[in-house]
Amino acid sequence: MNHAHFLSASRRAFLTNAGLGFSGLAASVMLHRDSMAEVSGWTPPNGKPHFPAKAKSVIWLFMNGGVSHLESFDHKPMVTKYAGKSIAETPYADVQNPDKLAFERAPVPDANGLQRNTLFPLQVGFRKHGESGIEVSDWFPHTAKNVDKLAVVRSMWTTDSNHGAQTQFHTGRHMLDPVQPTLGGWVHYGLGSLNDNLPQFISMGTREYWNRKDGHYLGPAHDAVPLRIDPANPLDFGQPQATFSGDAQRIGFDLVEALNRETTTAYPDDPATAARIASYELAFRMQRSVPEVVDFADETEETKHLYGLDQPHCREFAGQLLAARRFVERGVRFVQIQHGGGGAGAWDAHGGLKANHEKNTRAVDQPIGALLTDLERRGLLDETLVVFATEFGRTPGTQGSDGRDHHPFAFSVWLAGGGIKGGTVHGATDELGFHAVEDRHYVTDVHATILHQLGLDSRRLEVPGRKRLAIDHGTPIHAIIS
What is the pTM of this model? Predict the structure, then answer.
């Protein structure tokens, strides 16, 4: 057996599998890129934007279960005017006819293959806010105060009528289609690190089992690192299996570094080893730096109150969003926060929509408003892109009670900061909010917009042998870009 090859392979296995928490993550990023280059002769991304970027970081807020566009950011008074009537009895009887809308993909029925035809009145009022006069529901008063920072896209559509649409929104593909990396995975893969003391792709909140992988064929190195707002234990495997003092860990890292350098000198034809020496240093730094970020002891009482850390109904989400600000402040690229995980998702209001959305908006609205305010006053909003999204909307019609079904034909999202044109409404639905009819956007158009603001061209990130469809790439929504 070739001794140099054996030693090289052994060191790779050791670095990848060593049980020192983050060290495996750090090593696997570099090893995965090298292995792909060795096999294909292809040069992986170098961590630099393809063109000048307008944003450095992304905070991705995802509401699991399906937020009603009709009771959030797309006011449709005709739904209330004709409440109790069948859609066929209204002047808008043809809104269910998809042939008139030239769908890029064949539309799917509502959840369970049914149409909800009896209109259900709006469960909340709307008001105009800001200099832009954008209408926002009364369930989002703190977000509404920041409406002039938002670009509201009211013309989103997708094809999955059930909660696999969560995966579809994150990847652009149906959960049963050939898998694709998530948007955060692509960003991590394309741009790499701004701060080697912290993970560059972070996830907070509960993710459903069908929506837990990010890297897919890019490799697990590009999966999000799941974190908790707990300074004593912010992440799984973030501490050694046994208790070691900082000095003892330092001795261990120094020993591994010395051994690796000896190997690099003795076997210079192994290009992998030299680049791996830093992986344990990175793990050591992360073990110290991550708890500090999720410890809010140095934040002012005013800031804590602004986010709602003193309010039981929004304390958990407030902590996650304050941590998100602290992470991007320190150079983290992509922070993904999912609200309402568990089952189909907390926003899934088939019945009791009013109580459901009142509870959920109380949990998220104040922290979201605080995040936008706080980023702006710290000079971070210009370089941080904030996204509010959900997998689909809710039907204009009732399910026969006081709720709304899943609705993939039309829903709303908004973006703010990072070179986005604030105080903007883009796209429109018909008078009942049934179909997106003006400037329609499939979910990957949001991905393309975010990548564009980060200076990335998704086609230049493609991996050999992994051809993507045009719709997988999407098209930037230039109308909302400054």
Answer: 0.85
